[in-house]
Amino acid sequence: MQTSDLHGKVAVITGASSGIGRAVAQALHGLGMRLVLNARRPALLEELGRELQAAVVPGDVTDPAIPGRLLDTALQSFGRCDVVLNNAGVITSGTVEDIDIEAVCAMVRVNVEATFRVAYTFVRHFQSQGRGHLVNTSSVLGTKVRPFAGAYCGTKSAIEALSEALRLELAGTAVAVTCVEPGLALTDLHRDLPEHPAKGMGINHPLRPEDVARCVVFALTQPEHVRIPRIMVLPGEHQI
Q1: Spans of all domains in the chain
Q2: DSSP per residue over 118-136, as a string?
Q3: Nearest one of 120, 50, 60 to 88, comparing CA atoms
Q4: Beta-carbon contacts of residue 191 (< 8 Å; ≥ 6 apart)
Q5: How many CA atoms lie within 13 A of 157 on its CB side?
Q6: Is 120 a catalytic residue?
Q7: CB 186 within 8 A of CB 203
Q8: What is the pLDDT of residue 186?
Q9: What is the pLDDT of residues 12-52, one digit of tens each?
């Protein structure tokens, strides 16, 4: 697809109220796409929905009913669904002694279980209509590991495996799969930490959400015969 080909098409975005999800929503709106947005923080989501004239579905993505509601909303509001950005995610890390195991399990429910539900729900729809594009937000830590972050890395490795398996299964069809692998970015992912990890890592210029959004647009605007299975995007100072 060329950029102009996105005009009038419909994208569903989870984790849309801030960070990468919000930046992608704004970028796609600017290209003429119509949007269905999901997030857990209803006030932020409603505000963004008004800004982008988007349909909104507030709710926790771990609710098994949310993926179906998102697809139904796209079809009822706009009559179609062409793209899903599977973007909702959280992070929990810590030493063996200190990590909160319940928080780890909650992270797995968001980063793996909910992401898998969204992926399969929408890929089945894309298969039935003969076209569509699944974009999964992974991380550079889906391809590498760091001390204290093994559980988070494991959740993103699961997204890498799912994305690649779906790409292979769907090869030869008009359903595309892309896995986006950002490095350290200025998002709300780290909002519960005393300071952003960039400071301790000597990264003065972390990624901004708009940097990742440009990568998503790049993947979505390729000619129909081209696939972009993975895009890793890093800050220039990120030694990983």
Answers
A1: 3-233
A2: HHHHHHHHHHHHT-EEEEE
A3: 60
A4: none
A5: 10
A6: no
A7: no
A8: 83
A9: 999 999 999 999 999 999 999 999 999 999 999 999 999 99
Point out the catalytic residue in the list 35, 37, 152, 182: 152
Q: How far is CA 189 from CA 18, 83, 117, in A?
A: 9, 23, 21
Q: Which two structure tokens, joined as six digits, stand for 170?
A: 């769907």
CATH of 3-233, picked from 3.40.50.140, 3.40.50.720, 3.40.50.150, 3.30.450.20, is: 3.40.50.720
pLDDT above 70: percentage of residues in the chain: 94
Checking if the pLDDT of 4 tops 60, the result is: no
Of the candidates 156, 70, 62, 172, the one whose C-alpha atom is nearest the C-alpha of residue 121 is 70
- Among 70, 73, 11, CA closest to 219: 11
Q: Is residue 37 helix, strand or coil?
A: strand
**pLDDT for 198 beyond 70:** no
What are the structure tokens assigned to 119, written together? 């992926």
| pLDDT in the model for residue 232 | 98
Give the residue from 200, 89, 197, 105 showing the smallest Cα distance to 151.
105
User: b/e string for 197-226 if b means 16 or more Cβ within 10 A?
Assistant: ebeeeebeebbbbebbbebbbebbbeeeee
pTM of the model: 0.93
With b for 16 or more beta-carbon neighbours within 10 A and e for fewer, the 138-156 pattern comes to: bbbbbbeeeeebebbbbbb
Structure tokens at 235: 């800050």
